[in-house]
Structures are given as structure tokens and as C-alpha cells.
User: Fold Glycoside hydrolase family 3 C-terminal domain-containing protein from Cuscuta campestris.
Amino acid sequence: MKNVETGSEVTAMAAFRRETKMGLHGFYALWELLVASPSCRIGQKSLPKFGSATSVIYSPIWRTKVAACAKHFVGDGGTMHGKDESNTVIDWEELLRIHMPAYYPSILMGVSTVMVSYSSLNGEKMHANPVLVTNFLKGTLNFKIMIPNNHTEFIDTLTYLVKNGFIPMDRIDDAVTRILRVKLAMGLFEDPWADLSLADQLGSKAHRDMAREAVRKSLVLLKNDGPLLPLPKKATRILVAGTHANNIGNQCGGWTIAWQGKSGNITTGTTILEAVISVVDPTTEVVYNENPDAEFMGSNEFSYAIVVVGEYPYAEYDGDSADMTIPEPGPATITAVCGSIKCVTVLVSGRPLVVEPYLPLIDAFAAAWFPGSEVQGVSDVLFGDYEFTGKLPRTWFKTVDQLPMNVSDSHYDPLFPFGFGLTATQPIADS
Assistant:
């Protein structure tokens, strides 16, 4: 394969064809792998949550492997103005360079399904794009398994089109063959019913410990003046503030319990406030105020503050945003608290947001994304039990007027570059 990163045409596909002919070895769950490459979209979907103890459905025979779904093929991370399910305008070289690379290793590693995007590419709906779906995905990449769809939505239309000669039966046979391959590999013909004997392990301590580890490894430290971090566990009096400091639903974001997620006590877990209380010295007084004003700050003394603000839960098009700002009262909380005392601000969001106006007030700043239910991982790094190791998975812009903006662009002038991240003592940037 030629250099995909520079947008060269993929020519050496023999390895793909050889590797992807390997047999499937049995699965116990369907696992969705989001491999979309965000192109600095304004309204991008939220990033995957890192700290939720997620449930799986076990198949009756194999319990050690998963049937994965790579999605959404292809280009949904680059739609115009970031609008969900909208149109991506891009040439072939840039498509290969920016949006296609994640699919190559996914297919080589045996991903069982690829979900086609609801978005369009240069004005053509991806579901109606034979060049990419039929010729490139099935042909060039030799993808032999399953491309899922909503059968209840399309079955009547599809039946009509077949009966009236618009769609040939060999096209139906191809789709059915792919479905049967996955079902055979999962043993569903031998035993179609789920085995619930392992269900009591869902949300176990081992699962939550792993989720906590994922949280602390995914946090990205972007500023640490002083340095303020790591925070001392023993202090006279500290303040924890913000809309996301004591709210599990806000920590989890969308796709949690409900499609759009929901604020409040929606699931079992730990809030960031609870995590802080559990780790500080017993003699340290922890004061919580969700949205303290200037009067409150002026009448109280604190050693330092932890401010946790961010986006409220959303999924898909409900997350579309034209300005990408921190929702109120987040900015007001940052201004009141960080303008008065030393503070670390933890941003909970599914994407980079406009933060430059507030950075001069903030001593330390960390991106937590949507960390999920096991946010002891946040306190792990804030208080120095573990070092920050996360790096930005995408460029952090200064203003939305810069978007779209990618590493190779002539106007590349980020607030924080792709791959940037600090430890508590030194930068670990990697462009």
C-alpha cells in the first residue's frame, strides 16, 4: 500500500485480499467501533465515552471474542459546517488521506460489519454510492462480511424493487451471504439464544476498574501554570464548583441509558465531587457550590478550586452547534471562581470548544471528554496518584472561523495542536 497519509492511491491490495480471507473464529457480542475521522467539524458527534461500565450481550457458544462494527463509512466526520448526516465535499486524495485510513486496519483485524453513513459525499448519499461501497469497500478492500441496514424500514421498498426488476437477485444473494457468514461464525444456527450465565459480571469491580483506568489515560492536560498540578490532598479548605461536578448524567453524555442521555442521577457510578472527597485528606474541608457568584467568592477563603463545566448530554444531530461555546452557566462559573483564586478547570465535552477567552483566568486546564461513570480516574491524575498521559486526538481550534482545519492546511494555527498533551512536569507533544 502506498502512503495513505499523503493521499496517494491505494495500489498494493494483495495483502488485504490475502488477510481478509481469514476465517472468523466466533464472537460473543456486537461491538461498534467508531472510526470516523473528524475534520474539525463544528457540529461533530461526541467522542466515545471512556469510563462507562458498558453492557454486552453474550452469544451461547463463544464468550471471548466480539463481532465488531466499523462506522460510519465514509466521510461523516467532514460534513459541511459540521451538520450531522449532511454533505462532505472533498476530493479523492483528501478522502483517502483524512477519512479512510482507520478502515484499513479495522478490516485487516477482522471487523465483521461496516455501517454505511447516513451522510452524503459530494452530493451523493453514501448508501447510493457504488464507487465507494461496492467497488472500493467490497472490491478493492475485499470486505466479505456484513454491511448492516434497517430491515424494517426498507423491506417493503426492497421487495417492490426486486419484483419489478430494478434490483437483481444476485445483489440480494450477496447481501444475504454476508449476513449468513456472521451468523455462522457466531454459532447462531447451532443455538440462537443468548447465554445469560455471565450477566452478573456486567458492571463488576473489574469492569469499573478498567473503566477508571481508561478515564485517567484519556484525560488531556492542556495548561498547568505554576505548576498548580498535582493538587495537594491536604489543604485547609477547597472549592468544587460547576454544573458537571456532581452530576453523573452530565459526565456520561449521550448514548447513556437513553439515546440522548440525560442529566441527573441516571446510573450507578461516582461523581467528580465524590471522587475528590474520597481522595483528599480527612482534614481537608471540601465545599461544593454548583454556580458560585462573586459575592460568594468574596466572602469565602479557599486554598484552590476545581471547576467542572461542559456540554450537556446529546447525541447525533441534537449536538449540532454553530458556535461551539461552553454552555452557560459554565463561563460565568469559570469567571467568578478562576478570577478569584487558583483553579483547575476540567472541561466535560464531546469535542473541543471555544475556551480561549477564559484561559488567562485558568491556572490548569484539562479535557476530560465524556468520562462516564468511573470518574475516580479524574481525581487519580488531578492529585498526582497517576501522571497525565493523554494527548489530543484532534486539533483544538481558537475560533470556529478557522474550521475546517487540519494539520497539513496552510491556515493551520491551532490553540493546541493535534497530538498535544502535558504531564504535570513537562510537555509530551507529538504532532
In short: The longest helix spans residues 169-185. The CA atoms of residues 325 and 354 lie 5 Å apart.
